[in-house]
Design a protein that fits this description.
The protein is of the alpha/beta class. The protein folds into 2 domains: about 200 residues, Enolpyruvate transferase domain (UDP-n-acetylglucosamine1-carboxyvinyl-transferase, Chain, Alpha-beta prism); about 210 residues, Alpha-beta prism (UDP-n-acetylglucosamine1-carboxyvinyl-transferase, Chain), CATH 3.65.10.10. The protein has 14 helices and 24 strands. Strands 22-23-1-24 form a 4-stranded mixed sheet, covered by helices on one side. A 4-stranded mixed sheet has the order 2-15-17-16. A 4-stranded mixed sheet has the order 4-5-3-14, covered by helices on one side. Strand 20 and strand 21 form a beta hairpin. The longest helix is centred in the middle third of the chain and has 14 residues.
């Protein structure tokens, strides 16, 4: 197992290319099985989650080929006749559940292993099942599997907002299924993240009829079939936000090539409040740290609010701020597994309910730390960039799920970071 080694103190400068959005690419790849011909998806990120989804596509009979140095993927679903998504694959990645809607819509049945929870807190799938049942699916839970069947899906009105707000993957599943359902489906309380908009645009490029994407109310008129398409994935706003935090904590200046400023409104607002200079430059975003970080308070929300997937990275930045910050997690209230590890690096953070109280310190100290999940990994690397001495981030496989060669990109900006073999 590998670990990441960081020697802190380098100031990041230069240009970094932002990869395609993982959270858009995965449901788009899954939805491609509904096409009546091969689809080509460009700007796919070279991350392990894409590899896992590729394994699942091939398992159910699709032909998947990569080109353009792995950033373009061609998916031919002609060999798919339905199929199961077994536990051995689903356990690697929760987003595997996004096959449920496409399989059900195209083939009238789907069998998907229950994905279970993860270290950022329980993430129940009740909204997925509720939405698909409203479209006419018969659903049973047997021996750890979701068994769904439908003689023909029909349009319906579906309310999808849950206890902590809209569900992105549930919206993706129900929207994908609805495009081949008879009649009109109206989804109320839909997620409006850019990744859902991207999925909707991909489906529209195949012939789907969708209105309202980007809002909390979606209307879908079912069609008889979907044609092949070529589509380019949006840039990853979470990767962009991660590099913004890295530039800010080191007092550097980084050009984020291809980043979408319009997808980063809440992030830009909070970083500006923290004293970070941010400007749009054509199709890039330029981030400049000022050498000091002001404390900010933030609560995560669904888009267009501050993203939960950047909460850990902001927490890392606030560890060296000039005051006390309160960071409240309203999407996954238990998502603070990175806090004990940051405290091992001499941060001063306490947890009170769904909030982290971050008291800024003068400097962090490098230490061996353990990554618990994807975004926690990024937070520990960000902290290591500014910590005195050496930081060792163990279980680095987590970060490979969502970042395309992060250590290579950081090294190109001047960071002292590399991989080594580890024992954990």
């Amino acid at each position: 197992m590998e670990k990441m080694i960081i020697e802190g103190g380098a100031c990041l400068r230069g240009t970094v290319e932002i990869s395609g959005a993982k959270n858009a690419c995965l449901p788009i790849m899954a939805a491609s099985i509904m096409a009546e011909g091969p689809c080509v998806i460009r700007n796919a990120p070279r991350v392990s989650d894409v590899n896992t989804l590729t394994e699942m596509l091939r398992f159910i009979g699709a032909t998947v080929d990569f080109s353009d140095n792995g950033c373009s993927v061609r998916i031919d679903p002609s060999g798919v006749t339905g199929g199961d998504a077994p536990y051995e694959m689903v356990k690697k990645m929760r987003a595997s559940i996004c096959f449920l809607g496409p399989l059900l819509a195209r083939f009238g049945r789907a069998s998907i292993s229950l994905p279970g929870g993860c270290v950022i807190g329980p993430r129940p799938i009740g909204l997925h099942l509720k939405g698909l049942a409203a479209l006419g699916a018969r659903i049973e839970l047997n021996h750890g599997y979701i068994e769904a069947e439908a003689d023909g899906l029909r349009g319906a009105e579906v309310f999808l907002a849950g206890r902590f707000g809209p569900s992105v993957l549930a919206t993706a599943n129900v929207m994908s299924a609805a495009v081949l359902a008879g009649g009109t489906t109206r989804i109320i309380g839909a997620a409006c993240e850019p990744e859902i908009v991207d999925l909707a645009e991909f489906l529209i490029s195949m012939g789907a009829r969708i209105r309202g994407h980007g809002s909390h109310i979606l209307e879908i008129d079912g069609v008889e079939g979907l044609s092949a398409s070529e589509y380019t994935i949006i840039p990853d706003r979470i990767e962009a936000g991660t590099f913004m935090a890295a530039a800010a904590i080191t007092g550097g200046e980084v050009v984020l090539a291809g980043a979408r400023h319009d997808h980063l409104g809440a992030v830009v607002d909070k970083l500006a409040e923290a004293g970070v200079e941010i400007r749009r430059d054509g199709e890039s975003v330029v981030v400049k740290g000022t050498g000091s970080v002001r404390n900010v308070d933030v609560a995560t929300h669904h888009y267009p609010g501050f993203p939960t997937d950047l909460q850990a990275q902001l927490t890392a930045l606030m560890t060296v701020s000039e005051g006390i910050s309160i960071i409240t997690e309203k999407v996954f209230p238990e998502r603070f597994m990175h806090v004990p590890e940051l405290n091992r690096m001499a941060a001063n953070i306490s947890i009170e309910g769904p909030s982290a109280i971050v008291r800024g310190v003068r400097e962090l100290s490098g230490a061996p730390v353990m990554a618990s999940d994807l975004r926690a990994s990024a937070a520990l690397i960000i902290a290591g960039l500014v910590a005195g001495g050496r930081t060792e981030v163990n279980r680095v496989y987590h970060i490979d799920r969502g970042y395309d060669g992060i250590e290579k990109k950081l090294s190109a900006l001047g960071a002292r970071i590399w991989r080594e073999k580890g024992s954990l």
